[in-house]
C-alpha cells in the first residue's frame, strides 16, 4: 500500500486537528486558532495519505520564522541556522507502518537543500524510548534538554547535520534551480492560488 506525501489542503485542517488531539501525551494538544496560525505561517506543512485516508502530518519552520514555540526559541538561541520540526503525528492505526519514516524522509529532502541542520524535540516524561530510538535511527543526536515551564515537560533537544546542504550551497548559492519540485509554495499560498483559479 502506497504512502503519498503532499501539501496539506485548507479543508483538511479539522481532520489534522482531530489527528493531533488524538495522538496522546507525546504531542501537545492544539485548538483551531493555534492550528490556523501554524497553517498560515509554517514553511512546511505536509500530510501523509494512505489508502485514501489521512495517516499523519508534519509541520516545520526555518530558523528565522516568527514562530512562538519555546522549544523553537531554545534552538534559535543556540544555533544560527536550522529547520525545526514543530510536530509530527501519525494516526494510531498507522504507527509502525512506515508513515513516520516517509514523513521524515520527505522533510529531510526539503530541508537539506535549504538548511545545514534539522532540529526537533522528544518529551521525556512519556516513556520516550521508542521516539528516541526512532530519531536516533535517523541520525539525530541530543544537544541538550529544555524544560517547558508552561507545561512542566522536559524535552530532549535533538539535531541532525544535513550533509547535502554544503554541496548545494556551494553549487547553487541562494538560487536553487527553477524546477517545480524545488519551488514548493507555502500551504496558504497554494490554497490562495487554487481559489483564484476557481474564481
UniProtKB/TrEMBL annotation:
It holds the Pfam family Acetyltransf_1. GO terms for molecular function: acyltransferase activity, transferring groups other than amino-acyl groups. Gene3D superfamilies: 3.40.630.30. Residues 3-164 form the N-acetyltransferase domain. It comes from the Bacteria. SUPFAM superfamilies: Acyl-CoA N-acyltransferases (Nat) (SSF55729). Signal peptide: none annotated. This is N-acetyltransferase domain-containing protein. The lineage of its organism: Bacteria, Pseudomonadati, Pseudomonadota, Gammaproteobacteria, Lysobacterales.
Amino acid at each position: 500500500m502506497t504512502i503519498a506525501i503532499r501539501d496539506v489542503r485548507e479543508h483538511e485542517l479539522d481532520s489534522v486537528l482531530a489527528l493531533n488531539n488524538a495522538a496522546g501525551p507525546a504531542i501537545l494538544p492544539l485548538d483551531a486558532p493555534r492550528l490556523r496560525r501554524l497553517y498560515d505561517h509554517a514553511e512546511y506543512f505536509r500530510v501523509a495519505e494512505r489508502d485514501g485516508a489521512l495517516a499523519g502530518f508534519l509541520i516545520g519552520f526555518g530558523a528565522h520564522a516568527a514562530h512562538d514555540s519555546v522549544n523553537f526559541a531554545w534552538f534559535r538561541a543556540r544555533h544560527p541556522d536550522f529547520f525545526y520540526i514543530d510536530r509530527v503525528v501519525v494516526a494510531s492505526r498507522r504507527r509502525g507502518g512506515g508513515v513516520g519514516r516517509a514523513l521524515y524522509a520527505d522533510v529531510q529532502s526539503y530541508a537539506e537543500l535549504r538548511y545545514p541542520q534539522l532540529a526537533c524535540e522528544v518529551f521525556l516524561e512519556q516513556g520516550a524510548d521508542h521516539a528516541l530510538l526512532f530519531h536516533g535511527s535517523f541520525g539525530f543526536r541530543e544537544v541538550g534538554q529544555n524544560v517547558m515551564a508552561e507545561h512542566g515537560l522536559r524535552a530532549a533537544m535533538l539535531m541532525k547535520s544535513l550533509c547535502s546542504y554544503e554541496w548545494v550551497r556551494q553549487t547553487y548559492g541562494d538560487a536553487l534551480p527553477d524546477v517545480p519540485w524545488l519551488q514548493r509554495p507555502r500551504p496558504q499560498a497554494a490554497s490562495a492560488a487554487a481559489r483564484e483559479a476557481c474564481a
